[in-house]
Write a structure and sequence with these properties.
The complex is a heterodimer of chains A (464) and B (481). Chain A has one domain (30-131, 138-275, 332-445). Chain A is built from 20 helices and no strands. Chain A is an all-alpha fold. The radius of gyration of chain A is 24 Å and the shape is globular. Chain B has 481 residues and is an all-alpha fold. In chain B, 69% of the residues lie in helices and 0% in strands. Classes of the chains: A mainly alpha (464), B mainly alpha (481). The A-B interface holds A 1, 4-5, 8-9, 11, 13, 16, 19-20, 23-24, 26-31, 138, 424-425, 428-429, 432-433, 435-436, 439-440, 443 and B 5-6, 8-9, 12-13, 15-17, 19-21, 23-24, 106-107, 110, 117, 141, 388-389, 392-393, 395-396, 398-400, 402-403, 406-408, 447-448, 451. Chain B: This is Alpha-1,3-glucosyltransferase. Chain B: Belongs to the ALG6/ALG8 glucosyltransferase family. Chain B: InterPro entries: Glyco_trans_ALG6/ALG8.
Chain lengths: 464, 481
């Protein structure tokens, strides 16, 4: 309480923002939670009551462990705190157990882990320079970025209502980005390696990291025109990077390698049997593809081009996750999606290699990788849009052009998260929070770039 | 105003906090046979929809007044009727006569909570926004911060959206009244205030300042000319609004009397339950409730109440000003709360609203009082299992006030408006220079006490007498300061 008073009283706006959003998260405790709640309870139970050799084999519940080992260790540590709240939740056979103490513990664990996210946002704000802007606090880029990240609508409803642990994971990612901005490349690489072993969805942006570190860290100098200088290649740096990645992976996968369980672990981590699209279609390219296929099949049936007996029974909109085939257009395999994704990220990777623009260029490439993977990936969750929105926030407070793209991305991306909360009591919450975030982002970014807009407008006038 | 988007965000934050609090339990949830205030409101919808107006306030086989009989003025009844029509449209089982007693379901809870939100959105929130926009001599940013603090006041949110009541309607109308009267729209202001009184009779706590302020304005304009005209117009407005609201009950003398009997239950005694009021605290040492006969109790409370508020009211008549009006509202409401008859702990909200209005003038003391007032509601809120929302909203309110007004930097004697007091004390005690430091320490002590008491009532299970006593004393201490 004393720290609270001091922090708030000294006018430290960052602490006030962080505290404010934490209090809001506490108010969201009694809201609806999805099956992900049971997923994490199950993982607490598995890691607590079973030996390591059983972790990736246990299948009493349908929600089997499908995150990399570091996350399993994280759940293991949590379970040792959980036993003081309610011992019953750690029983593997207690399916769908959700006593009030369990709920309280789980919700508080998410809120508590967000401390890492707050720290990461603080570090990111240090990388933003606020030159040439007004003296008012609410118009400074640091302030706007803090609000856009700390009060991010998507993160709030996915983590604190739907229930997941994305907060601290995105914290790790933002922290690694901040370290790269601060030229602490080894730390950045280490943090990203750790992050990959917490949740492998971040593989989407691994190419950006790989290329950037190789190009801008392993080659210590550029030619005057910015192109690559081959003789400045530093073996020491490459080796040390490789060592870091190797050590982290060894720490994570080592025990399972020793138990000869690697194939099982990988089959859990990459469940390709799950189907092209998730139950709720992520608004990506394949959703359009499926829709087109459906439309064409309906037209085909009407115009008698297709034989009704040849149409596969499984419907894509029934909400089941299973493999199926398309009727009119060619079926899509995981390899095809990978190729499409690679083609999509190639331009940005090329730019990052041939014309590196420092950390800012890396950030742009990262965002583009995230977006391309979202567009063309296999079995993409709509929550994955956050992977693009959060890094984009960093870009949005620095250039007007990025700000307008960010506004479109964030508004549509957040709206696409609406189906996650389908219960009636949560309807006002998602509408109010969405309005809050959208109105704030539009008005604050508009105010921030008002001056540059007028400059551009004046320049435009002079040009004519 | 140019920062309209910030004001919109403040309103959205207020609404979000309100709705998330409403997800929690309500008064009397799952507690037959009597349940609580939630069931009372549902029952009034049932009564007003199914029975003719003449039977609303009377005891009959269809309307058992012992089971949550109507005890608010007619406007509450009309509001319940309106809600009942909507309920009938959605699910008639909710208001079926007799059979819907104790009806509880998720859908019904959603419906009831929505009615509170809509009433709040239509009446209270616009009043707060408009009030803050019309404040003079402060920057736009301060106006918005003021609105945020008022909208985040925990007491009202917890009682309306947690415990379940419609205080935002009567307080909203009263605020419209204050707004009208301060901006020289006297007729509209008095109309709004009459609506407030006709919604909840406790608004009479605020009636004297309105009366004195308007009277003072009439005197200032001169009783021979414009002042007299204004007086007549005001009287007509008041009479007309009362007649309109009470029209169905003016047809027979017995109707009017019965309603009045329901509104002012003088049979009930000096106080009920535990309330942060002088009589209750006094009762711990000397059982006056049992010693003195009823009519003596009535006269005693009447005298004390009026004696304590007379000075401020007289000053207001002689020198009517907006600022004086607001401060008189605070002191009158406080006098009524401390000394009046049959005061409920929820009536502290009637004091809190005027204190919210003077938040921008003396932020430190106002914040302190508002925190203590919320704390005094704790026993009631604990009964409704609202501990988590109470703690969180109180912390949020405290955070908002501290960052908006930098209250810890504004504790000099001048800003606390205690300069004249300290000067007069210094005549006798020349070393009395540390008033502001003393007050800061007192604040810290009171906050620590509140936190400790909260922890104690949650973790320990002793008889509730002692913690309540301290909440009572804390309430009195804060208010007397």
């Amino acid at each position: 309480m004393a720290a609270f008073t001091i922090a708030a009283g000294t006018g430290n706006w960052f602490s006030a923002l962080a505290l404010g959003v934490t209090l809001l998260k506490c108010l969201l405790i009694p809201t609806y939670h999805s099956t992900d709640f049971e997923v994490h309870r199950n993982w607490l139970a598995i890691t607590h009551s079973l030996p390591i050799s059983q972790w990736y084999y246990e299948a009493t519940s349908e929600w089997t462990l499908d995150y990399p080992p570091f996350f399993a260790w994280f759940e293991y540590i949590l379970s040792h705190v959980a036993k003081y709240f309610d011992q019953e939740m750690l029983n593997v056979r207690n399916l769908n157990y959700s006593s009030s103490r369990t709920l309280l513990f789980q919700r508080f664990s998410v809120i508590f882990m967000d401390v890492l996210f707050v720290y990461a946002v603080h570090e990111c704000c240090k990388c933003i320079d606020g030159k040439k802007v007004g003296k008012e606090l609410t118009e400074k880029p640091k302030f706007i970025l803090s609000v856009l990240l700390l009060w991010n609508f998507g993160l709030l409803i996915v983590d604190h209502i739907h229930f997941q642990y994305n907060g601290f994971l995105f914290g790790l990612m933002l922290l690694s980005i901040a370290r790269l901005f601060q030229k602490r490349h080894m730390e950045g690489a280490f943090l990203f390696a750790v992050l990959l072993h917490f949740k492998h969805i971040y593989l989407y942006v691994a190419p950006a990291y790989g290329v950037y570190l190789l190009r801008s860290y392993c080659f210590t100098a550029n030619k005057p025109d910015g192109s690559i200088r081959w003789n400045s290649f530093s073996f020491v740096r490459v080796i040390s990077l490789g060592l870091v990645v190797f050590l982290v992976s060894a720490l994570s996968l080592g025990p399972f390698l020793a138990l000869n369980q690697l194939p099982q672990v990988f089959s859990r981590l990459f469940p390709f049997k799950r189907g092209l699209c998730h139950a709720y279609w992520a608004p990506n390219f394949w959703a359009l593809y499926n829709a087109l296929d459906k439309v064409l099949s309906v037209i085909g049936l009407k115009l008698k081009f297709l034989d009704p007996n040849n149409i596969p029974k499984a419907s894509m909109t029934s909400g089941l996750v299973q493999q199926f085939q398309h009727t009119v257009l060619p079926s899509v395999t995981p390899l095809a999606t990978l190729i499409c994704t690679l083609i999509a990220i190639l331009p940005s990777i090329f730019c990052l290699w041939f014309k590196p623009q420092g950390p800012r260029g890396f950030l742009r490439c990262l965002t583009l990788c995230a977006l391309s993977s979202f567009m063309f990936g296999w079995h993409v969750h709509e929550k994955a849009i956050l992977l693009a929105i959060l890094p984009m926030s960093l870009l949005s407070v620095q250039k007007a052009g990025d700000a307008s793209i960010f506004l479109i991305l964030t508004t549509t991306g957040h709206y696409s998260l609406f189906p996650l909360l389908f219960t009636a009591p949560e309807l006002p919450i998602k509408i109010l929070l969405m309005l809050l975030f959208t109105i704030y982002s539009i008005s604050s970014l508009k105010t921030l770039f008002r001056q540059s807009f007028t400059v551009i407008a004046q320049a435009g006038v002079q040009w004519h | 105003m140019e920062k309209w988007y910030l004001m919109t965000i403040v309103v959205l934050i207020g609404l979000t906090v309100r709705w998330t609090v409403s997800l929690n339990s309500y008064s009397g949830a799952g507690k037959p046979p009597m349940f609580g205030d939630y069931e009372a409101q549902r029952h009034w919808q049932e009564i007003t929809f199914n029975l003719p107006v003449k039977q609303w306030y009377f005891n009959s086989s269809d309307n058992n007044l012992q089971y949550w009989g109507l005890d608010y003025p007619p406007l509450t009844a009309y509001h319940s009727l309106l809600c009942a029509y909507v309920a009938k449209f959605i699910n008639p089982d909710w208001i079926a006569l007799h059979t819907s007693r104790g009806y509880e379901s998720q859908a019904h809870k959603l419906f009831m909570r929505t009615t509170v939100l809509i009433a709040d959105l239509l009446i209270y929130i616009p009043a707060v926004v408009l009030y803050c926009c019309c404040l003079k001599d402060i920057s736009t940013k301060k106006k918005i911060a003021n609105a945020l603090c008022i909208l985040l006041y925990p007491g009202l949110i917890l009682i309306d959206y947690g415990h379940f009541q419609y205080n935002s309607v009567s307080l909203g109308f009263a605020l419209w009244g204050v707004l009208g009267v301060s901006c020289d729209w006297d007729l509209l202001g008095s109309l709004a205030f009459c609506l407030a009184i006709n919604y909840k009779q406790m608004e009479l706590y605020h009636s004297l300042p309105f009366f004195c302020f308007l009277l003072g304005k009439c005197f200032k304009k001169g009783l021979r000319g414009k002042g007299f005209v204004l007086l007549v117009k005001l009287a007509c407005t008041v009479v007309a609004s009362f007649v309109l609201c009470w029209l169905p009950f003016f047809t027979e003398r017995e109707q009017t009397l019965q309603v009045l009997r329901r509104l002012f239950p003088v049979d009930r005694g000096l106080f009920e339950d535990k309330v942060a009021n002088i009589w209750c605290s006094f009762n711990v040492f000397l059982k006056i409730r049992d010693i003195l006969p009823r009519h003596i109790q009535l006269i005693m409370s009447f005298c004390f109440t009026f004696l304590s508020l007379l000075p401020a009211c007289i000053k207001l008549i002689l020198q009517p000003s907006s600022k004086g009006f607001k401060f008189t509202l605070v002191s009158c409401a406080l006098s009524f709360f401390l000394f009046s008859f049959q005061v409920h702990e929820k009536s502290i909200l009637l004091v809190s609203l005027p204190v919210c209005l003077v938040l921008s003038e003396i932020p430190f003391m106002s914040t302190w009082f508002l925190l203590v007032s919320t704390f005094s509601l704790l026993p009631l809120l604990l009964k409704d299992e609202l501990l988590m929302p109470s703690v969180v909203t109180t912390m949020a309110f405290f955070l908002a006030c501290v960052t908006s007004f930098s209250i810890f930097e504004k504790t000099s004697e001048e800003e606390l408006q205690l300069k004249s007091f300290s000067i007069s004390v210094r005549k006798y005690l020349p070393c009395f220079t540390f008033l502001s430091r003393m007050i800061q320490y007192l604040f810290l002590i009171s906050v620590i006490t509140m936190v400790l008491l909260t922890l104690m009532t949650v973790t320990l299970d002793p008889p509730q007498k002692l913690p309540d006593l301290f909440s009572v004393l804390a309430g009195r201490g804060g208010s007397s300061l």
